[in-house]
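On to our target:
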Amino acid sequence: MSGDPRPEETPEGAPATPPAEPAVAADDTPAPADDPTPPADPTPGAGPAPRRRRDPMAAALIGVLTLLLGFAFAVQVRVTDTEQALTGAREEDLVRILDELESEEARLRAQLADQRAALRDLSDSDSRADAALEEAQRRADALAILNGTVAAEGPGLLMTIRDPEDEVRVADLLGAIQELRGAGAETMQVDGVRIGVTSAVTGSPGDLGIDGQEISTPFEIVVIGSPQDLETAMNIPGGVVDTVNRRGGSVVIAQAERVLVDALRPLETPQYAEPD
């Protein structure tokens, strides 16, 4: 027989015994537990590394850039989607979209035209209102001059009637006023009394009055109108100059390029008449 030891036979059905592990000396030192503390800086004498603090300005800038990039991306996606939709659209859809765009353009053009027309109407309305206001003011000024409520100046006559014998009568002075009006006199005053539509000459020779105010010789008449026409009317045969001369008086007439009628009449308020 060989000197090699024979393996032990294991009864049938019994589990084989595994070979024994080599004996290791037991270490009574317990295994170190997991230490969450990070390893210390190997530099001798150095403390733990300080944590970095995020700059607030940098954080805000990053946030703004993120928003801008997101917005740009969204717009780009929307434009890309629109282009892709138009690229993949059918001819009928493209025609419909084009018609809608043309209709929208026509509507906007119509609105713009309406706004421009409204602006023109407003400007025209303002112009018409200004013209109407100017016309109303012009008429009011003309009526004020005729009524004697405002002073007036213009070309006309300076006429002096002398009556040393006190022979000038009411009819003579009233005739002079009427003849001047008939010759185109626009306004006048006699001895500082403004002549109006309702003016009345009263009294007797040597004691005449106009609208209740006494006047005396020589009678100074200042009248505005065409100087030539007014003087011609005064010198007609049988007129004022001729009549005064026959009564022993005299009339001196001087044409002037500018005379001033500054006597005023009070504004009379109608008692019964009302504007229609």
Notes: Strands lie at 152-162, 187-190, 193-194, 201-204, 207-210, 213-215, 219-224, 250-261. Residues 91-147 form the longest helix (57 residues). The chain is about 40% helix and 15% strand. Helices lie at 56-87, 91-147, 170-182, 227-234, 240-246.
